[in-house]
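Recall the central idea of this unit: under ordinary conditions, the amino acid sequence of a chain determines the structure it adopts. In this exercise we apply that idea directly, starting from the sequence alone.
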Amino acid sequence: MLLTGCDADHTVDWDFQVTAGRRAGEWSRIPTPSNWECHGFGSYHYGGDLVPAEKGNYRHRFTPPTSWAGRRIFLVFEAAMTDADVRVNGVSAGPVHQGGFYRFRYDVTALLRLGEPNLLEATVSKESADNSVNDAERRGDFWNFGGLFRPVSLEAYPSARIDRVAVDARADGTFAAHVTLAGVPAAARLTAQLRRLDGSAVGGAFSVAVASGATDATLTTTASQPELWTAETPNLHRVELTLASAAGEPWHSVAERFGFRTIEVRTGDGVYVNGKRIVLKGANRHTFWPTSGRASSPRLARLDIGLMKDMNMNAVRMSHYPPDAFFLDLCDELGLYVLDELTGWQRRYDEGVGAPLVKALVERDVNHPSILFWDNGNEGGWNAALDDDFGRYDPQGRAVLHPWTTFSGVDTSHYQTYSSTASKVAGGTIFMPTEFLHGLYDGGAGAGLDDYWKLMGGSQRSAGGFIWALVDESVVRDDRGGALDTNGSRAPDGILGPYREKEGSFFTIKDIWSPVQLANSAYYESVFPASFDKTVKLVNRYDFTNLRRCRFTWQLLAFPVPGAGTGHQVLAQGQAEAPDVVPGATGALALGLPVDWTSADALQLSVTDPTGRNITAWTWRIRKAPDYAALLVRPATTGSVTAAETAGEVTLIAGATRITISKAGGRLSGVRLGSSPVSLANGPAPAGGAATLTGFSHFRDGTGWVAQADYSGDLASVRWRLDANGWLRLEYRYRATGDHDHLGVNFDYPEANVRGLTWLGDGPYRVYKNRLRGVQPDVWRKPYNDTATGASGYQYPEFKGYHARTCWAVLETTEGAVTVVAAEEGLFLRLFTPKVGPDPQNAVVTYPAGGISFLDGIAPIGNKFHGVAALGPESRPNAAAGDYHRTVYFRFDA
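Accordingly, the structure predicted from this sequence is:
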């Protein structure tokens, strides 16, 4: 009998009063389950200083049915933050429960009046009277909340009952159920039947005799070749158990869901599931939603799991506390490996208060096949005296980890540099960092992952790792007009925004962690390989799945020209026969393209897994940047350009277009379209270094007019040519050697005038030198925004930053449209300098001067704990190659 709602989406109002903070002392109503801060009560509080005076007083009246007479009745709290003092009809239900994330219950049989109204009262203290509970839970690096944030219910059992079941089901089919009994009045029998979820029986029934007064029993059997559980094949079973009298009268029946699977930590080797070595690809997840705090629902849990699987993750770490039971149910059903964690962030529970919490954690979660490990706290917040407690309640004997150090043969050390990661994966200990590549703002997470995963994804002793973190944890503050608060730089760490907005790293991770990879690294370029023979070589990075179970579809695409819309047209499509490639092997996929496939603009290949989920797609441009330039920029056949000269400038005039070049610097100093200015100016200026003008000239060139500037220094030459049809061609040459953050040229343009961008290039997200994967060539459009990733704005994709492999772009401004066309491949278009949140630490990236840049080399970004110098090869500066040449066309339209 639920007394609250079943989750944050389905609530029941209770009487409520908070003792401090907002609305203190006022009796009103509050939805349950919930955190009271999210409903206008108390104070918002991030881990650190305590607020011991803040308590919530709850009252609720309920009527249990008279049909419960003769049963044992328990009052069950799925969790309460943090100390809970419970009374029924004015009488204490039992000792104050301490610990905010754990199920607890009271036997209230003697306190209830069946068939009549009863009064439940609970005083929930936001902080604990036990300082070690506060150390472990309330002084952590995460938001603190108060309240009954998970359901409260009554459970009525027969006096002779099955109290708990702990299952141990192995990959070889052996099965054991360790059953806790209560109230057995006489000799009895416990019978079990294994079933698939469709109800079909697995083998026959099996049973064991139970003596009078027995408190435990164990049933065993062996299933013949059962379907096994893995994250790739989440096959579940059910065991039905019945406690009956010796004469066969059933007293109590229960059913438990489980999976047949075996977990092994092979010391100095790896983590194995069902005899196969696995690699975990995961994120750290807090139970969190901006408007409900830690109160959640199956809807929100399914959303998060779906997004993780969309990124090709196969694992999740429950940081830093056990989640809702329904989250683990969904991990079992949908297929995610889980690290389930006892709370403790750099501080720990004392043994006396911690031991019952370990018991509560394991007894609730023991039968979830998704759980591979138990985490005893985090980053020093472990109590070694509790390590052996986990095994007391877990017949599977899962390994216990101490995240941040080496324990149980697994090195989980956090935030290693690229070089220390290389050392660890080459060492003799299993390496599985439970936190790495800290995703503060837009740094980390996907940035640097390609290099790290080349080390971690293929090493024998690497068991994978967990990125910090899944979401930006931003609380909606009603005391700040609904503003989102991440407590400065402490909580904007997500791959996803607070409402699960997809940031750029989402797609990078999806690409890098796809279980189907390209065998030739050159094929990760968006330009179509010249050696393509209508087959693609693939690597199977699954642990258990043959690629023949996947679906491969191709499409030939046509891209619109500027002004003709966005996206693409599908010219032809088909399905390729999936190759027979076992995990770890390489094979060839023959696409079977039509003979005229080269007339398309691009080829796209998509892969879906056996459940129909898209796991990856690659798009290769068949048409190159010079092809688009030739298509879009047609030379004038009639007309001519005139020039007007002053002492300091020369103005080239073609119809309504007027281009003014500075004679002192050779740079663009003004553009006018009729009588209206276009504020592009002060370029091309070298993105790095300096240049001194050594010569300037201008002259007629057929239907056009040329202005030529020559330099000494880092810029060699600039040649402007305005054609009679209004197209302006810029050719520039520069020289660079050594290491550089940026290679290319800059212009000025007032950001305030910009309204949007449409472009053909790799998008829709911006890139960094160490986060180039995950973007795809297409015709994209995005409106201007000033988002500071994870801190303000929350509009994605972000407008500003580096954009990869741009063929053409149309900048939409208050002054008209500025069209840019690249004549060569590989242009990075930089648009302005992005805003960043407070205290970005090492999660920073450099940008050149000016507002708009045309670049051959761009900068990498760091993460919270590491600057780019500590990361891998992709995070190093650009090694300049000497002389560079690029041609860019401009057109200005009203």
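The two ends are 68 Å apart (CA to CA).
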